[in-house]
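Below is our example:
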Amino acid sequence: MTIINSKQHSGREVIGRLLKEHIAPYKKRLFLAIFCMFIVASTAALNAWMIQPALDQIFIEKNRTMLTLIPFAVFCITLIGAVANYGNTLSMRYIGQRIVADMQTRLFEHLMKSDIGLFHQQSSGRLISRFTNDINLLRNAFSNVLTAITKELLSMVFLLGVMIYQNAALAFIALVAFPVAIYPIIRLGKRLRRLSDKAQAQLGDFTSSLDEVFAGVRTVKSYNREEFEVARARGVIESLFRLYYKSSRIQSASTPLMEILSGVSIALVIWYGGFQVLEGTISAGAFFSFITAFLMAYKPVRAMSGLNGVLQEGIAAASRLFNIIDTAPKILDKHDAQALVVSQGNIRFENVIFRYTPEITGIDSVTLDIPAGKMAALVGLSGGGKSTLMNLLLRFYDVQSGGIFIDGQDIKNITLHSLREAMAFVPQESMLFDDTIKANIAYGRIGASDEEIITAAKNASVDDFINSLPEGYNTMVGAHGVRLSGGQRQRIAIARAMLKNAPVLLLDEATSSLDNESERNIQQALQELMKGRTTLVVAHRLSTIVGADIIYVIEAGKVIESGNHEELLAKRGKYYQLYSNDFDND
């Protein structure tokens, strides 16, 4: 069973991985953006510095030449800064959106290649929450925070340079209060990350709950549980509200803190700077240039403190995404794995032992022989291990002991792709995608011609039904095939398996959703499909496997009886009981 990594990454680790794994591929654009930021920051500092000659040369010394030159210089500086700002914003937005898209693709690809156990451990709602909520938080962090913090930091450095150039003593007074704010802002950021983790965990649970309720809406309504579900949802929503409101309070606290500290600094600067002007220590132009640089530097400082919360949420989101990406699958090809060669189609389970957990045994020392080109059936009460054996054959899980062989080849030593390519699987609960009927059948073999798709539909006794629809094969089936009946969905799933035309056929109660008439219609098609193929069938309705070449009775993960239909009836054992009950129920 796959266990998702729950490691708590530090902010430094997350940022380091994002830089190395997702930002590094776009370093050329990043260098362009940094260059543009450098220009933007320097133009901001130049504009602040220009206050001194403007005030001293124009307003005090009445220099008419400077009256023309200084405004023109300010305009040029501003124009250059605006163009650089455009280049910086565009480059950083591209990098941010590209990183998010790459992360989504990487996450989806990882999930598609992960063990099936991961999907059993994590609900679809929680995984979808990673794709939507966490990705949005990451996008917000990249699109806004990364751009703003880098640009504002450079601006602050350049403006600080102007302040020190004009008057180092004033610069020290102006900045002495800001380090005091760093500690509480860091503490607030850590609290925001913890709250973000809690909120996203609850949001994932809520998304999962919504998915279940919407999928089971008929059960909800048939039991009159609408108010119960509303009350449960209201409780989760209120809990989310409290978490988000608490986050908002923490985020809102940083701005007033900076306002108070900046007010203290401005008051001290005006007092001490004004005293120096009155004493003639510095000129009025130098003082106002300093004040301008200081006020302009305050903007990036306030912006960075306000964006800290968004940054922490983005780091927390990236950490959760990395936890999934770092969960390595256990079902993998060996480095020397070979492609499966199906020469005949013999399948053998040899002393197979499999446990879902150390406490729960799924299969206990099972040995099965399925002759090439023959039909083998697995029967028994629910929970006995029949579907587990089929899952092991597909390597959805690996056996803990023993082995499974196809034509003498241990399936652990062959590639997953070639193994599954050799099998056509029809599960008990047919899965249709929210697409056309044609696309759902063609899923069995991408690139199949329309003729081949129609032939498969005819063989599955579903062509007449499809043609009776206004849009025929182009009819949309809805999410999970909701616009079709259970029997129609199952026949389309069987058509998909027929189109695949694989040498091994796996039917996990494939006709369970069909009525008796539909089942009779499709049995003939299945018989045709089984010819020349090794077929493994899991069945509750024993009338469908009377003609099986060999039948294995599975109970509590063990084979308790085997033989053909007549032989097992003659034993008057478990199979006889099951068949008699099945016959009585029919």
Remarks:
- The mean pLDDT is 82.
- The first strand starts at residue 347 and ends at 357.
